[in-house]
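Quick entry between incubations.
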Amino acid sequence: MKLHQLRYMLEVADNNFNVSEAADAIYTSQPGISKQIRLLEDELGVPIFARDGKRLVGLTAPGRKILLRARQVFREIDNINRIGQHYADEDTGSLTIATTHTQARYVLPSIIQRFLRRYPKVNLVIKQGYPEEIVNLVIDGKADLAIATEGVASRNELISLPCYQWHRCLLVAKKHVFLKKFANKNAKKIALAEIAEYPLITYDNAFAGQQHVLDVFENAGIKPNIIITALDSDVIKTYVELKLGVGLIANTAYDPKKDKSLGLIDVSHLFRPNTTWVGVSRGSFVRNYVFDFIEMFAPHLKKKSIMASLSTE
Amino acid sequence: MKLHQLRYMLEVADNNFNVSEAADAIYTSQPGISKQIRLLEDELGVPIFARDGKRLVGLTAPGRKILLRARQVFREIDNINRIGQHYADEDTGSLTIATTHTQARYVLPSIIQRFLRRYPKVNLVIKQGYPEEIVNLVIDGKADLAIATEGVASRNELISLPCYQWHRCLLVAKKHVFLKKFANKNAKKIALAEIAEYPLITYDNAFAGQQHVLDVFENAGIKPNIIITALDSDVIKTYVELKLGVGLIANTAYDPKKDKSLGLIDVSHLFRPNTTWVGVSRGSFVRNYVFDFIEMFAPHLKKKSIMASLSTE
DNA sequence: GACGCTTACGTTCGTCGTAACTATT
DNA sequence: AATAGTTACGACGAACGTAAGCGTC
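Done. Structure below.
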């Protein structure tokens, strides 16, 4: 068995079982992949890919199991490379962060600036995606860290560490009546029914605990008029600016400097807070600068305690 | 990075850092290994082996970490091979059991007979060793199962399953006075002080909870006269037959048919029972016939429940 | 001088890519 | 005719083993 045979196999599986595409993706010839996969199947004594005539159309039962193991092999190969790099040069390497829109746009920029000043030689890559994609990127070794509110803590393949809590807040256009009534420090808190008097613009239901928002209205017997569900906060802001309604977004997505045309109302008494997590692949070798990044992001997460979670859990 | 480079590295580490020995062990040339290890170190950018002049004398810090990861790589490669074999032919393959003297000599023979009748094509290998060796064999992928009373349950790298409990028993020569006094079903139980009236022959202190035996005497304020400490039950039997004293052995090591020249006294009220465990490498692919073997050995351990422990724990 | 690793070099084997071929859609 | 995979084959490169070299105990 050769490593490149396993790599070819994974590449084919990751390219819709299209050998030609896989060949393009890894800059080699299609017959080469075909042959090496045959050799691997011959050596193991079982077919890995289900075939329809000559075409590969899926995995066999043993193929599915073999694939999982092969991924683990490459995870460890990656770790070995990381260990080499780590000892060869503490401050050089790469860091790929998979994260959501909100983090990438509002939370991470300042952290990343600090990080790159400290580690100018680290090759930093941000991959934006939806929670599930993010988590899979880390599990498949295509990203080092997952940062998101949803999906991270629930996956056993990752070690997840709570970073910070955020609350929902109500976004209104400038001079909105809510601002006078509720925006002052000592003002009384806004009630759910009052929010529902206006059309509501908020996150898509596929997102960050959005179901909870609906449940809160439901339980209160109030039916909000949700006119727009968006995939990111910027879209929500745009429509709130246009006075199409009030917005419900994460407080972290509100930037007092940039969002001068918008006002903020505290609604933390109405909805439960959310936790944003950082996820690391279980058992992976973590470079020092990655520990540092995590600590910059969430100062309570020290190398020592993360190390402990990595090995024991 | 090539698999055989990693293999060479492990082989050198497992052969006292002697490249020539490693070369002999895997039937290749010494310069070949030297070169490939250099190439690997060059690729990773760090030295793996500590050198004294030209000689390899140990591992560097990165080397230690890399070695652990490399072993994991081969564990998964082994698993892939097992998966292949499993689907290619359910009843063919190999099963290597690492176990102690007592198990190998007294407990396993009948099980193995049954097993081989059921799976005549399985290549069965028994490796005898001391608890620590046994466990390491499994961890290093050189054995599939560890069967022992000590050492198995304590290692986190293994899934350990309790198989059966055994008790200590007192072994005496034929016509010994104890036999009349204590061997009958309704006889009163022997007391610790009575045992201590005779020279005692028992297991070496390095062994299976032997410390417990000493503690029991100690706590009772009785000082036994231990004249021989042996590494296996057969040696103990030999000296008991010669009437040099009474023996304290595992009840599983007493065979009524073969040991006609010896008598047995129950002492289970004096010493705490011991549990014999079977250990499997965490996360390994387990062949069906291995599940069957375990069930033959400990009928309460069904495939389904073992599978559950393998994946969740 | 025996041991142990490295360097040098020719042989061999395996991998790769091109090209031709076959089978599906 | 286009797409997808296999077979065939020559070229190149990598790994191996032998032999010679170098340093150390």
